[in-house]
Amino acid sequence: MGSKLGEFGRFVNIEKVLDYVEKRRHEDGGYCFVSVLNDTNVNDTYYAVKMYDLLGFEVPEKEQTIEFLEKAIQPQTAVVAIAMALEALAILGAGDVAREHVEIVYTKYNPLEDKFAVGLGGSEEFGTATPLEATYWVVKAFKAIGQPISDEERDKIRTFVMRFRMGSGFGVKQPTTTMTYQALYTLYSLGYRPPKSPHFRNCELCGDWGGFTEVPYSLPPYLEPTFYATRGLELQGEIPTCPRRHIWFIRQLQNSNGGFRRSLELGISNFQNTYRALAVVDSMMKHI
User: Fold this and answer.
1) Contact (Cβ atoms closer than 8 angstroms) between residue 213 and residue 205
2) Of 91, 155, 224, 225, which one has the fewest beta carbons inside 10 Å?
């Protein structure tokens, strides 16, 4: 796979991104977004793997990273983190290793037993994971490693996901970009084709701003809804209205250390934000 260094270099300082990631790799094969800490973790390691894959580079000393991820799959590990580890192993060419640990998922997440929220632990978005978020990550991981989902499991998951439907979107108290994408991705991955949602389009900001918001007709834009809305439009076969403005928004988020923050205001870089920023640029480049 060839690298995309030149393509990305037109819009962001990609050399600084690579330096940012490489300096945060540790001897155990894991990554920690705070370089001075030796507290490597699944989240940062997952996003490091995703960034290298997106950019078309091999993960340095990937066998060590494979070993790190496999060791992280433990009974006490949150289901979202286990799902991340499984997907990252698949990206690293170790899908067979990932499949050896599938049973541990079913101790925490088992639709046939109505287990959608057992020991959820940490979340990507909300501090404590919602059952919908866990569902999204598990389905995503199973798809990556080729783990089959039975028809009965599919029906159970679909019924569960539809509990979060609110009008044309999905959410708990109101439809949000994050939960709408997670729900729709899950349904599409299971073979269902729900109606297109206008939610993502209604959260798009052009003009002076760029980016997307979590709820329609609001300000300011943030990186996470921009990432999920971009993916949501792609999922529905739609294109953004103002891709150049969205790239402008992303450009403003790059910090001096090469990583990206989540908003136009001051904020620290982390691996999650940096991957999402690159993924948005990668998508927008196709439309300009």
Assistant:
1) yes
2) 155
Q: Render pLDDT for 77-126 as a digit per residue (tens, 0 to 9).
A: 999 999 999 999 999 999 999 999 999 999 999 999 999 876 555 556 65
User: Distance between CA 102 and CA 125 in Å, rounded?
Assistant: 24
**What is the helix (H) or strand (E) element at residue 169, kind and residue range?**
strand 169-170
Closest alpha carbon to 90 in 142, 43, 139: 142
* CA 153 distance to own-chain centroid: 23
Residue with tokens 């073979």: 191
Judge if pTM exceeds 0.90: yes
* CATH number of the structural domain spanning residue 179: 1.50.10.20
C-alpha gyration radius of the chain: 18
CA distance 142 to 38: 30
Q: Report the number of distinct structural domains present in the chain.
A: 1
Which residue(s) pair with 169 in the sheet? 166
Nearest one of 148, 230, 229 to 190, comparing CA atoms: 148
> Crossing angle for the helix pair 177-189 and 131-145, nearest 10 degrees?
40
What residues make up the domain containing 149?
5-285
For 212-227, what is each residue's pLDDT tens digit? 999 999 999 999 999 9
